[in-house]
Design a protein that fits this description.
Blueprint (H helix, E strand, L loop, with lengths): L1 H35 L2 H35 L1 E2 L2 E2 L1 H34 L4 H28 L7
Antiparallel strand pairs: 1-2
Helix pairs in contact: 1-2, 1-4, 2-3, 3-4
Length: 154
């Protein structure tokens, strides 16, 4: 159904866009924000809203992707595409990272920022899971594009 495809692409763009924002903008800017005294307002006001959209867009991307696949659109001439299956597996792994590693550690980081605690272990875990997702997004996106353009031929 086109609705699943449309929603899948829409929330997928939101998810991956936020992923790149966190990895390419926030990570680079946070030390400067700490120096300028802007880290606490950012952590209290912007970050919770961005993380809400981030984790829920990840969930909706997986749900709409599975719905799109189950509706029969994840096939090439009736044969399940290996590219779409690889992309789905990578997407599910990435969503798992969001919900089970990044989000629990970000909750600790936000609470720690409010209390003045550094929480370097939680920061490191969230950073590594987020960076892993950024790298996994490249083959995942390649698989999703290939699935709609003839696959990889295997």
């Amino acid at each position: 159904m086109w609705v699943f495809e449309f929603l899948h692409v829409l929330v997928g763009i939101l998810w991956i866009g936020l992923l790149y924002f966190f990895n390419l903008v926030q990570v680079q800017s946070m030390p400067k924000m700490v120096e300028a005294g802007a880290a606490k307002p950012y952590t209290q006001i912007i970050l919770p809203k961005a993380l809400f959209l981030f984790r829920h867009s990840a969930l909706l991307t997986v749900i709409t992707g599975i719905a799109y696949y189950v509706a029969g659109r994840g096939t090439v001439e009736g044969i399940p595409s290996s590219a779409i299956m690889i992309g789905m597996m990578l997407g599910i792994i990435m969503a798992g990272n969001v919900w089970f590693i990044i989000w629990p550690n970000q909750k600790k980081i936000i609470a720690g920022a409010l209390e003045g605690d550094a929480l370097t272990g939680a920061k490191r875990k969230a950073f590594l899971a987020s960076r892993t997702n950024a790298w996994l997004s490249l083959p995942m996106l390649a698989c999703m594009v290939a699935a709609n353009h003839g696959g990889f031929g295997f």
